[in-house]
Amino acid sequence: MSLKLRLIAMNFLQYFVWGAWLITIGAYWFQTRHWSGEEFGAIFSTMGLASLFMPSILGVVADKWIRAERLYGCLHILGAAILCIVPMVNDPRTLFWVMLVNMMCYMPTISLAITVAYNALKRDGADVVRVYPPIRVWGTVGFIAAMWTVSLLHLEITTGQFYVAAAAALVLGIYAFTLPPCPPRLRGSDHRSWVDALGLTSFVLFKQAKMAVFFIFAMLLGAALQLTNAYGDTFLHDFAHVAAYQDLVAVRYPAIIMSTSQVSETLFILAIPFFLKRFGIKTVMLISMLAWTLRFGLFAFGNPGDGLWMIVLSCIVYGMAFDFFNISGSLFVESQSDPAIRASAQGLFMLMTNGIGAVLGSSLSGVIIDTYFTRPDRSLEWHGIWLTFAAYSLVVAVLFVVLFRHKHVPEVIQGVPAH
Predict the structure, then answer these.
(1) Domain Major facilitator superfamily (MFS) profile: where (predicted)?
(2) Does 126 share its domain with 234?
(3) Digit-coded pLDDT (tens) for 261-299
(4) Which residue segment(s) compose the domain that 122 sits in?
(5) pLDDT of the residue at 249
(6) 297 and 219 in one domain?
(7) Do both 121 and 63 map to the same domain?
(8) SS3 category, 400
């Protein structure tokens, strides 16, 4: 098998593991377990908590002591075992700790997968900038395939989703040991402090007012991302309690409808270089914030019947909301950072979005939903939930226009000069 196909298989399985439960765990939580929104917010915050420290710590381990592909494989095998434990847990507080350990295994594998792929491609003499993006797209395909698998097998509100994820994680864990070797690069020769190794030197960027404001808004948008991941599938599942909607395709297979978001994501990636070069990061980020507002607003007024077009359009808008924030933000950080701390700066960007932002978005949304939008019978008032999220995104957008100061200068994106 060619190197490209081997890395495609790795990326496909990497995101298949995540996609098998990430979007549908909410349906399991509310429809089957009938646990509270506050407790669910805590479960979703485990991704952010694990992202605060595990990728950096295990990145150091891979740099200094253990081959990256072996560490990657061990983490997935351990993660598979933990996912098999999830269905046995009957207490939400216990499940929080189980999912936290699961996320401590999974979140570092995202960066380790990139490390393994980059190392293999460079050893093969390939142009990483040109070759890797089409390989990475297969990760999104894997995420979509997992959602379709769980939905078509009617596992969205059952523990079966965790077994599907565990099976994929076990296969990937074993497969990882066959990947090209990625040995430690700093063994016996690295004398950096742990502050340097963990990427904390990048916090110097907060001394620049522009970058400090940017990272704060990255955190706020990271919170918005958790809202849509946590509650989108659950929202569609709730229509099963309405006789007029319960037999419609969108209610029977909600994960398939939600997967439109990931399809859209792959398409909007292609538009990023044009928008960045033409309009600059401030406009692109503002478009992302307004897209989040539209994403939530369409959910507020949509339904699986005559309002299905709103739900589908919301999923399409998601691609713009996610890519224009996540990928464009990463490119902006790259362009604004000193070469000596670019890797650390990217780590800081991920910390603010997938770490602090994810924790805040998951935790606060759970409290707000429990306090203001949960009826006495534990059903949820979705119209108010989505309008609140839409208002949040709109307020963030207005504040961003006022506070973020950046004059657009045509920049070089992926080595292609702007005209």
Answers:
(1) 210-419
(2) no
(3) 888 888 887 777 788 778 888 888 899 999 999 999 999
(4) 6-183
(5) 85
(6) yes
(7) yes
(8) helix
**Cβ(33)–Cβ(92) below 8 Å:** yes
The reply to whether 324 and 223 lie within a common domain is yes
Q: CA–CA distance from 139 to each of 18, 44, 61, 316, 336 (Å)? A: 10, 21, 25, 18, 28
Residue 419 has a pLDDT of 33
Task: Based on the fold, state whether residues 138 and 267 are members of the same structural domain.
Answer: no
Confidence (pTM):
0.76
The predicted structure's pLDDT at residue 301: 95
Q: Picking from 14-18, 32-36, 72-76, 136-140, which range would have the lowest pLDDT averaged per residue?
A: 32-36
Encoded tokens for 29: 């939580």
| Distances 6 to 113, 146, 172, 180 between C-alpha atoms, Å | 12, 19, 11, 9
Residue whose C-alpha is closest to residue 179's, from 39, 336, 8? 8
pLDDT band at residue 327 under the 50/70/90 scheme: confident
Structure tokens at 409: 């200068």
Best CA proximity match to 110, nearest among 172, 170, 184, 66: 172
- Which 3 state secondary structure label does DSSP give 155? coil
Residue 417 lies in a domain: no
**CATH number for the domain that contains residue 398:** 1.20.1250.20
Last residue of a domain, one of 183, 208, 223: 183
Rg of the chain in Å (alpha carbons): 21
What's the structural domain count of the chain? 2
Q: 385-391 contacts: CB < 8 A, separation 24 or more? A: 385/231, 385/300, 386/235, 386/296, 386/297, 386/299, 386/300, 387/296, 387/297, 387/300, 389/224, 389/227, 389/296, 389/365, 390/292, 390/293, 390/294, 390/295, 390/296, 390/297, 390/300
Alpha helices by DSSP H, listed for 86-127, are: 92-123
pLDDT at 62: 78
The secondary structure of the chain in percent helix, strand, coil, rounded to multiples of 5, reads 80, 0, 20
Same domain, 86 and 226: no
Same domain, 174 and 213: no
Q: What is the DSSP string of 26-83?
A: HHIIIIII---HHHHHHHHHHHHHHHHHHHHHHHHHHHHTS-HHHHHHHHHHHHHHHH
Pick from 183, 210, 245: which residue ends a domain?
183
